[in-house]
Design brief:
By secondary structure, this protein is of the alpha/beta class. It has seven helices and six strands; from the N terminus they run H-E-H-E-H-E-H-E-E-H-H-E-H. 25% of the residues are buried.
């Protein structure tokens, strides 16, 4: 995009980051945003139920970021969402959570009908999820999809339009039309 996607104006008001957090807060779970930008923490500082964890360098992508928040202790789960799905809504996130709750020993990974959207997932804590993550990172392997092939997971078909992943100016232009 050439600029911070989290701070792009959102069609429903605010910016992409606040719009996403506003979709999550009604779920009633604590929301933790992992970001390397202090401006994100400031932007969300007055939202009850939301905290920001500043990610310190090195910044080696989403798998390394997951390692900073995924607990090694079993019995927890982490809902992971990218900020660049500006059309994602609470009801779609609820569908993903519901699918995971039917098989909580597996990660639940979003699928748009064409491909996996691995950065939208519910990931259980503990082993094998955390141990596979640590082993892969120790080998210097940073690909999320490689990690996903090593852990038990189910795909969850969700509405494709809600999973639009905006990564370039053309995607942004399509959103604005």
């Amino acid at each position: 995009m050439g600029r911070d996607k989290a701070l792009l104006p959102h069609p429903s008001g605010g910016v992409w980051l606040t719009a996403l957090v506003d979709q999550l807060l009604p779920l009633g779970h604590p929301v933790q945003v992992l970001s390397r930008h202090a401006a994100h923490a400031e932007l969300l500082s007055h939202r009850p139920g939301c905290s920001v964890l500043l990610e310190l360098p090195p910044w080696n992508g989403p798998l390394q970021a997951l390692a900073k928040v995924l607990s090694p202790m079993p019995g927890e789960a982490l809902l992971v969402l990218p900020v660049d799905m500006p059309l994602l809504r609470t009801a779609v996130v609820q569908q993903l959570i519901a699918a995971w709750s039917r098989a909580p020993e597996q990660a639940a990974v979003a699928h748009d009908g064409q491909r996996l959207q691995p950065l939208l997932a519910v990931i259980p804590s503990g082993s094998p999820f955390r141990s596979c993550l640590d082993q892969q990172l120790q080998r210097g392997e940073l690909r999320w999809m490689d990690w996903l092939t090593r852990v038990p997971h189910q795909t969850v078909r969700l509405p494709a339009e809600a999973l639009l992943n905006a990564n370039c100016p053309a995607d942004l232009a399509a959103l604005e039309e």
